[in-house]
Amino acid sequence: MTRQLHLLVLGNPRFGSSWRYPGVVNGPAAVLDSVIETAKTAERGTFDAIFFADTLNYGLEAAWAHKATEDFEPFTTTAALSRETERLGLVVTGSATFQAPYHLARQLISLDHLSGGRAGWNVVTSFAEAAAANFGDNGVLAHDERYRVAEETLDVVRKLWDSWGADTVVEDRPAGVYNDRSKIHVPNHKGEFFTVRGPLGAAPSRQGRPVIFQAGSSPTGRAFAARHAEVIFTGQGDFDRGRAFLEQVHSFGRATPPLVTPSLGFIVGSTEEEAARLEQTVFEQFIPEYQIGWLQEVDIDLTGADLDGPVPLAAFAASTETHQTALAGYRALATQGNPTVREFLFRTVTAFGARVAGSPERVADEIERWFTGRAADGFVLAPSGLPGQLDVFVDHVVPILRRRGLFRHEYAGDTLRAHLGLSRP
Ligand SMILES: Cc1cc2nc3c(=O)[nH]c(=O)nc-3n(C[C@H](O)[C@H](O)[C@H](O)COP(=O)(O)O)c2cc1C
């Protein structure tokens, strides 16, 4: 079977400074409309899924004044989107640190049933101090400890999903028996971090169970992904880093290696000139104070730095218990081409992953280069926040990718697993 390119789009509305960009309307109603529009446009482009990041906090105080409010909770948002779309996958970020396994298992399988088998779970370990402060006063769990908790969380969630087999439901009306009791599996989990009896009370979905995504690319994160991820969301700032990462993932020795879908920030214009103009607009409108506040969460402190001066590398912690991929990724960006602080902060608007700006051909060329060069199996596209960018991508870049035989012309199936070519577990 020919290798298929996979495309997902980041669904989070108004991230960063985008609330301020020309043509953007704010407020709950307008944001809901734009989230629905993003999903419908992605489905029109036969994308695999819409993807929601999430961090269980409102960020550090330094960013509060500069941040929009309508960052809707992802399970609630995707439940709404499951009624606005038919084929598009719905991937939600859920914390394996602060969200109880029973809640996660139930919310995820509910979304999978509501959407007819289109749910995915991006397993994260919540790294932010500001998140830990919302779940007690014990501070952030140590990095590797978070992954140990995540290990058990995933184990419990799977046991709960396995409470019901494909043949547990018998629906014997004359006998008044709905489930074959002998086929209800009670987890009775007693672990280091959780005690969860179960069962969950949900039959398997049309795709069996939600697809497991994972984000976190430190050595511990990669080992976790090797054991659990079906798809890895990562941030690799350039082709060589992407290729090295994918090679390592493929050396995990799994029969079916996880798919690797790095983030890709994009700006597309009908011409190179128009794309440059759009990029200049974002450069003029992005809020450096917001980026500085966000970077503090991953132990990079540029408070008071001269925006037009060189990036002081002393601002980067030597190591972190927070987000090791981010710290390493941003340090790499800060040392590429001697940017000023302002240029570096602008670069962080699409985080520490790859990005491309240009005509539809240039954007398609970059996607093809990574895909055929084995640096990615697909991408989580991060539109810049300028209105209409995803429409331009679907109307002008997708046709090029199809003509080159890289991307599907239509959906072959109607579950997320079908889109990703993953078998039912
Ligand atoms: C591309 C990418 C996206 C991430 N998205 C989220 C997110 O939405 N929410 C979150 O709490 N953590 C997110 N993380 C953080 C990781 O899930 C991870 O738990 C943590 O940062 C530690 O990972 P690491 O040190 O292995 O990178 C993301 C990490 C990466 C690499």
Automatic annotation (TrEMBL):
Keywords assigned by UniProt, alphabetized: Flavoprotein, FMN, Monooxygenase, Oxidoreductase
Pfam families reported in the protein's UniProt record: Bac_luciferase
Tagged with keyword Flavoprotein: yes
Keyword Flavoprotein part of the UniProt annotation: yes
Domain (Luciferase-like) ranges: 29-370
Molecular-function GO term, any one: monooxygenase activity
Family that this chain belongs to: Belongs to the NtaA/SnaA/DszA monooxygenase family.
Protein's recorded name: Nitrilotriacetate monooxygenase
Species this protein is from: Paractinoplanes durhamensis
Taxonomic lineage: Bacteria, Bacillati, Actinomycetota, Actinomycetes, Micromonosporales
